[in-house]
What we know:
This protein is of the alpha/beta class. It contains 15 helices and 8 strands.
Amino acid sequence: MARRVFLHIGAPKTGSTYIQNVLWGNADILRDRAGVLVPHTLYAHDQGMADLREVTWYDPSSGWTWDRLAGLANAWPGDAVISSEGLGAATREQAARALASFGTAEVHVIVAGRDLWRTLPSMWQQSIRGRSTWRFEDFLSAVEKGRYQAFWDEHTADRMLRRWGDLLPAAQRHLITVPPAGAPYDLLWQRFAGVIGVPPDLCRLAAPTANVSLGAAEIELLRRVNQALGDLYPHRVPYQRVVQRHLVDAVLKQRANALRFGIGADRAAWVLSVAEEQIATLRDYPCDIVGDLDELRPVAVPVTGPTPDQLPDTQVLEAAIDTIVGMLGHAAALDQPLEKRPPGPLNRLRGMRRRLRNTVTFGTRVTDPADRVPGARRRA
């Protein structure tokens, strides 16, 4: 049975990708030198979360369930970390089930919080990249007027802590505030490392890879593509495999994305008021606060440029034409033999997979991938 289990449950858009890159990039070091297990792969954690929450886009063919993931943690005699920013959206009943699956282990919940000024535009963009079609103004209006309670329930630290943290002693609830823009890139990891009890300099760190935000023209183009898709690729995995891979990652993210946008100055007073309410609520909530609650207070200057809704059709059309040209180049690259393709991340991964298949030890055995992945099961 694990000694302690740390559940990093979100929220989305709070540096989760960076934390997860450090965790899996240093899984062997954490296991061997600190006794901290990061079981299997990020995909396993994502699918375990989807199974726990019983969402429609859970992929049963993955073979990963919450119980299977929890079983890997339970089999480890030290500490374990499970990380999925989707866990924070679990209901109270689902959270109780998750906590109960670790038996007598000491379970900790880690929630990260970020200021609303940065969170709201990021969350709308993330929803569009997840196949939504609503306009930016409609999203902001729904949040402001209380017609979109899911935003508050699934993306804000105070509500996540109420659903998960209330089920645990105060000392086992942790809130990490996301550092402001311009802070040292490793500060978020230092805060996270302190919670899970490992030296902040134990892991090899690289500067975080930017999760590229699309510009106003690019995200509006994607929104209109989502509308035109209708019932095509209705679920998360097929959409990611096709639209995210071949349109967003391969083309839209490669554009200049120069036209930035954000919440207009007309909503500044509302955002500041809500932020003060959240800070007051969290200050009164008994938990371990790592960082400074003042970092949840927006300090950004309002963006004055046009929002995606305000762009003229001619500008969106120009972006669409450039995107088609980019997709033609992407398609041409895919038609080339593997050896001649540009060495992008996807092609490098394919090359590694091909080399792995061809790796033979003394001419007798193909190397088992389980040898390289902590917690992986060997092939029968």
